[in-house]
Specification:
The complex is a heterotrimer of chains A (312), B (244) and C (311). Chain B has 244 residues and is α/β, with parallel strands linked by helices. Chain B contains 9 helices and 10 strands. Chain B starts with 6 loop residues before the first strand and ends in a 6-residue tail after the last helix. Chain C is 72% helix and 5% strand. Chain C contains 11 helices and 4 strands, in the order H-H-H-H-E-E-E-E-H-H-H-H-H-H-H. In chain C, helix 1 runs antiparallel to helix 8 and helix 2 packs parallel to helix 4. The chains are: A mainly alpha (312), B alpha/beta (244), C mainly alpha (311).
C-alpha cells in the first residue's frame, strides 16, 4: 500500500467523519444509509470488479445477513452484536454453497445460475412466512437495536456506526487489492487460463473471492437490519442484485472508491427523480444502458484512466 | 516403473482420442535434466495435444506421465506448475491490461509469496534477461507481438521452473529477435531443463541436445540433431510439408 | 365424476400455457441461437405485446370495429410495433456493444426497466382486459361404458372455449411456419449461416448487422405475439413480464440453449406439468423447485436436458 493510497482513502474516511458534524438532518440520514449500502457494493465489487465474477444474485447474500440478524433478534431475542455475527455466518455459508455450485459455470451461465439461486432464496423467504412474515417483513424490536449503551435507533450513533463499518470495509478492500492475493484475483479476471498455468489454484481463489464478497455483503445486510430496524423480502429481490451491479458499474468496477461513489450518485439521482415520477426505476434502467454504452469504466474508472493511473 | 535419476519427465504409453479420433498414440518419451529437448513434427502431428497433456490442460485417454519421480497423470495443471513445470503459450497469452511488471510479478509471487523485495529482484532480473527492462511500466497489451512473446518467456523465467515448456516460442518473431532468443535459451539451458516445441528448424538444430519427432500422433524418431537430420523416415515425413 | 375428464381439462389448460410459452421461448431461443446473446428484456416485449393489443383494440373500438376485426388488427400491429422497437434497440444499443454477451445482459437489464417503467407511466398500474374475437363455450365430451356399450356424453361443467383451442392451433401453425422458414427459405438459411460463423458470413456478403437487427426484432415479435394471444385470457399488466421471462428461461435452458426443437418439447413439458405441479405444491414452492432445477441443469448439464453436447 503506498502513501498516496492511504492518504486518499483515509481522506475520504476523515471527510465522512467531519460530515457527521456538518450535514443537515436529512442528508445526515441519507449518508448513513449510503455508507451501509456502499459496504454491500464493496462486497459486490470484490466478486465482480476485481475477480470478474458477474453475479446477478448478490441480493441473496445481503438478504442472508439481513434475515440472519432479523430472525435472531426477532424470534430469539439475540442482541445486536451476536446477531450480526450470525448474519455474517449465514452470508458466508450461503456464498460457500452457491460458489461450489455456480463456479462450475462461467460467463453467461454463471450470471443466470446466480440469478436463479437468488430468486430461489427470495422465494424461500416468502415461503417460510411463518418466520419471515413474508412480504410484510420483520420489524426489529427496539431493545434489540442496541450495542451496550449505544442506541442504534439514535441518528447520531447510527451515522457513526455506519461510518465505522464503511471505513473498515473500505480499508479492508484497499488492503486486499494491494495484497498478492488480490493481485491474483485481478489476474483471474483478466485471463483465468494464464493464471492457472502460472500455478494458481483458480477454482479455489474464485471460491474464496466469492465467500469474502458474500460475507461483506451479508455484513452490510445485517447492519442495515439493526440500524434501520426493518427486514423485508424486497431487499433480497432481483432489484437489489441489480442495484449492486448498477452502483459498482456507475462508480467504477475494480476501483476501491467506486462502490461508494456509485451508491452516493444513484441515491441522489433517485432523490431528484422521485420528485418527478414514481417510476424511478426508469432512471436505473437508463443509467445502466448509458453506462454499458458510453462509460463501462464508471466514474472512478474514468478518473483512473485519465488522471491517476495507479489508483487502486 | 524404475527411474533413472537424471530423468525429469517421462511418459509411458500416453494416448489421446477425441471422439474416436486418435490424436496421440502410445507415446513413450523421456526428458533428461538440464537438456534442451526439441519436439518437432509436421502440422497436425499431435505436438500440441501431447504438450497439453504434459501440462495438464488435457486429460490423457490412456498412459501415464511422470514428473520428477512422481506420477502426475491425474494432477491438475496448477499443481503441476507448483511442482516445477513452467509453460508458455503457443498463442501469446499475457495479461493484456496489466503492466509488464505485474505480468512477471504474478509469475514470481506464486513461489515467493509476500516477499516483496525478492519479487522485485526476480521481476527485474527476468525482464532484463529477455531485454524488456525498459518496458517495465508499459501495459502488456500495447507491446508488439514479438515483445509479448518475450514477456511470456520472462514470466516463465520468473516462476523459476525446473522444466520450462516453450510452445512455439519463435513463431512470429523477426530474424533478429530469433537470434537473441537463441542466445537466451543457451544461457538458460545451464540452469533448467527446456522442452522446446518448434517449427523453425534452424533454431532446433542449433539448440537441441536431443530431438523427438512426432508424426501422425506417434513417435517417429528420436536422437541428436545430426541423427535426426540424417534419418530418412523423418525426411520423408517432412517432404512436401515443410521446406526449411 | 371420475378422474379422467379432469385430467383432460388440466391437459387442455396446460396445452394453452405450453402454446404461449413455446412461442415466447422460441423467440428467446432464436435470438440466442443466431446472435449468441441472452435478452433479459424478453419478458417485457411479451408484456408490451399484451399492452399494445389493448391499445390497438381500444383505438379500433373508437373506429367502431367488432371484436374479431379489432383482434386481428392487434395480432398484426402489436408484434410489428414491438419488433420494430426491439430492432431499433439492437441497432442503437446492442450493435455498439459488439454483442459482447455479458455487456448485452447488463444493457438488456437496463432495457427491461426502461420498458417496464415506461409502460407504468403510459399505460398505468391496472390490469386491463381485451375481448376475445370469439369465445364460445365448448362442452367437452367423455366416453364411458353405458347400457349400450361405449357411450359418449358431456359431463357437467367440463368445458373449454373456442378461443383457447384457437390459441393452441395458432401456436402450432406459427411454430411450424417458423421451422419451415428457418430450414427451407433463403432468409432462414442466411440466419443459420450467420449463426454458424458471423465473420465467415460477412465474408460471403451476408449483411450480418441487418440480419441481427431482424432476428432480434423477430424474437421480440414472437414474444409480443404470445402476449397478444394470452391477453384475452389473462389481462394485460405492466409487471406481467417477470414471471413470463422466468418461465421462458426455464424452458429454453431445459430444452437446450438455441435449439428450437428442444425449446418446443420443453415448453410442452413445462406447460403440461405446471397444472399438475400446482395440484401438489403451493405456487411459491413450485417456483422454488423450478428455479433451483434450472440452476442445477445449467451447472450439471449445460447443454440442456434434451440437447446434445456440441463441440
Amino acid at each position: 500500500m503506498t502513501r498516496r493510497d492511504l492518504t486518499s482513502h483515509l481522506g475520504l474516511i476523515a471527510g465522512l467523519f467531519a460530515l457527521h458534524f456538518i450535514l443537515p438532518a436529512y442528508h445526515h440520514g441519507v449518508f448513513a444509509r449510503v455508507m451501509v449500502l456502499a459496504v454491500y457494493a464493496i462486497g459486490y465489487n470484490i466478486a465482480f470488479g476485481y475477480t470478474g465474477l458477474l453475479s446477478l444474485g448478490h441480493a441473496m447474500f445481503f438478504g442472508a445477513g439481513m434475515y440472519g440478524v432479523g430472525i435472531a433478534s426477532y424470534h430469539f431475542a439475540i442482541p445486536a452484536l451476536p446477531a450480526w455475527i450470525i448474519g455474517l455466518g449465514c452470508g458466508a455459508l450461503l456464498a460457500l454453497v452457491v460458489g461450489l455450485l455456480a463456479l462450475r459455470t462461467e460467463g453467461v451461465s454463471f450470471m443466470i445460475v446466480t440469478l436463479m439461486f437468488a430468486q430461489a432464496a427470495y422465494l424461500v423467504i416468502l415461503y417460510f412466512s411463518e418466520y419471515t412474515r413474508g412480504d410484510d417483513g420483520l420489524v426489529i424490536p427496539g431493545d434489540m437495536r442496541a450495542i451496550g449503551s449505544w442506541d442504534l435507533s439514535d441518528e447520531g450513533t447510527r451515522y457513526l456506526l455506519a461510518w465505522a463499518l464503511f471505513s473498515i470495509a473500505l480499508m479492508l478492500s484497499l488492503w486486499l487489492v494491494r495484497h498478492p492475493f488480490g493481485r491474483v484475483l485481478v489476474a483471474l479476471r483478466e485471463n483465468e487460463e494464464r493464471a492457472r498455468l502460472l500455478g494458481y489454484d483458480t477454482g479455489g481463489r474464485k471460491l474464496a473471492a466469492l465467500v469474502i464478497s458474500g460475507t461483506i455483503s451479508a455484513a452490510a445486510g445485517g447492519a442495515y437490519a439493526t440500524m434501520f430496524g426493518y427486514v423485508g423480502a424486497s431487499f433480497a429481490g432481483v432489484q437489489y442484485s441489480i442495484f449492486a451491479l448498477l452502483w459498482v458499474l456507475l462508480g467504477g468496477a475494480g476501483t476501491v472508491l467506486g462502490p461508494f461513489v456509485g451508491v452516493l450518485f444513484m441515491t441522489y439521482l433517485n432523490d431528484v427523480a422521485s420528485g418527478v415520477t414514481e417510476a424511478y426505476m426508469l432512471i436505473a434502467g437508463v443509467v445502466l444502458v448509458l453506462l454499458t454504452l458510453f462509460a463501462p469504466q464508471g466514474i472512478v474508472g474514468e478518473i483512473r484512466r485519465r488522471f491517476w493511473k495507479d489508483l487502486p | 516403473m524404475k527411474h533413472e535419476t537424471d530423468v525429469i519427465l517421462s511418459t509411458e504409453g500416453l494416448g489421446k482420442s477425441f471422439d474416436g479420433l486418435r490424436a496421440n498414440n502410445d507415446i513413450d518419451f523421456t526428458l533428461r535434466k538440464n537438456q534442451v529437448h526439441a519436439l518437432i513434427g509436421p502440422n497436425g502431428a499431435g505436438k500440441t495435444t501431447f504438450v497439453s497433456m504434459l501440462i495438464g490442460r488435457l486429460e490423457p485417454t490412456d498412459g501415464a506421465i511422470w514428473f520428477d519421480g512422481r506420477n502426475v497423470t491425474q494432477m491438475p495443471a496448477h499443481k503441476r506448475v507448483a511442482a516445477g513445470m513452467g509453460y508458455t503459450f503457443q498463442i501469446t497469452s499475457v495479461f493484456a491490461r496489466l503492466s509488464c511488471h505485474e505480468n512477471v510479478a504474478l509469475a514470481a509471487r506464486r513461489k515467493l509469496g509476500g516477499d516483496a523485495a525478492k519479487v522485485e529482484q526476480v521481476v527485474a532480473d527476468a525482464l532484463t534477461r529477455v531485454g524488456l527492462a525498459d518496458r517495465t511500466a508499459d501495459v502488456a497489451g500495447d507491446l508488439s507481438y514479438g515483445h509479448q512473446r518475450l514477456l511470456e518467456i520472462a514470466m516463465g523465467l520468473a516462476s523459476a521452473p525446473r522444466l520450462l515448456i516453450l510452445d512455439e516460442p519463435t513463431q512470429g518473431l523477426a530474424e533478429s529477435e530469433i537470434t537473441a532468443f537463441k542466445a537466451l535459451i543457451r544461457e538458460l539451458s545451464a540452469e533448467t531443463t527446456i522442452l522446446l516445441i518448434e517449427h523453425n528448424m534452424s533454431v532446433v538444430m542449433e539448440l537441441a541436445d536431443e530431438i523427438t519427432v512426432l508424426n501422425f500422433g506417434e513417435v517417429l524418431a528420436r536422437g541428436t540433431a545430426a541423427e535426426i537430420h540424417a534419418n530418412p523416415a523423418v525426411q520423408a515425413a517432412y517432404l512436401g510439408t515443410e521446406a526449411s | 365424476m371420475e378422474f379422467g375428464p379432469y385430467l383432460m381439462l388440466a391437459m387442455l389448460e396446460g396445452a394453452v400455457l405450453a402454446a404461449v410459452l413455446a412461442l415466447m421461448a422460441s423467440g428467446l431461443s432464436l435470438v440466442f441461437g443466431v446472435m449468441r446473446v441472452v435478452n433479459v428484456a424478453h419478458g417485457e416485449f411479451y408484456m408490451l405485446g399484451a399492452v399494445m393489443a389493448w391499445v390497438v383494440t381500444q383505438f379500433m373500438m373508437g373506429l367502431g370495429g367488432g371484436p374479431a376485426v379489432n383482434f386481428i388488427a392487434a395480432a398484426v400491429l402489436a408484434p410489428l410495433i414491438v419488433g420494430s422497437i426491439a430492432a431499433a434497440a439492437d441497432v442503437v444499443i446492442l450493435k455498439r456493444l459488439n454483442y459482447d454477451p455479458e455487456r448485452v445482459i447488463v444493457a438488456t437489464i437496463g432495457l427491461l426497466y426502461i420498458i417496464q417503467q415506461a409502460a407504468l407511466m403510459g399505460y398505468g398500474p391496472d390490469a386491463k382486459p381485451v375481448v376475445a374475437p370469439f369465445n364460445e363455450r365448448i362442452a367437452l365430451p367423455w366416453v364411458a361404458w353405458g347400457e349400450n356399450g361405449l357411450e359418449m356424453y358431456y359431463p357437467w361443467g367440463l368445458s373449454t372455449t373456442s378461443y383457447k383451442l384457437f390459441v393452441i392451433v395458432a401456436a402450432v401453425v406459427i411454430l411450424a411456419g417458423l421451422r419451415l422458414f428457418m430450414t427451407r427459405s433463403r432468409a432462414g438459411l442466411i440466419m443459420r449461416a450467420t449463426q454458424l460463423d458471423g465473420e465467415m458470413a460477412t465474408a460471403f456478403g451476408i449483411p450480418v448487422e441487418r440480419v441481427y437487427a431482424i432476428v432480434f426484432g423477430a424474437g421480440a415479435a414472437l414474444a409480443a405475439l404470445a402476449g397478444v394471444l394470452i391477453v384475452p385470457i389473462q389481462q394485460a399488466h405492466y409487471l406481467m413480464g417477470g414471471d413470463a421471462l422466468l418461465l421462458s428461461f426455464i424452458v429454453v435452458i431445459i430444452g437446450g440453449l438455441g435449439s428450437l426443437a428442444g425449446t418446443v418439447v420443453a415448453a410442452v413439458l413445462i406447460g403440461m406439468s405446471d397444472g399438475i405441479i400446482s395440484v401438489f405444491f403451493t405456487p411459491t414452492l413450485a417456483k422454488i423447485i423450478a428455479t433451483l432445477a434450472v440452476a442445477l441443469v445449467l451447472v450439471f448439464r449445460p447443454q440442456g436436458l434434451f440437447g446434445v453436447k456440441n463441440r
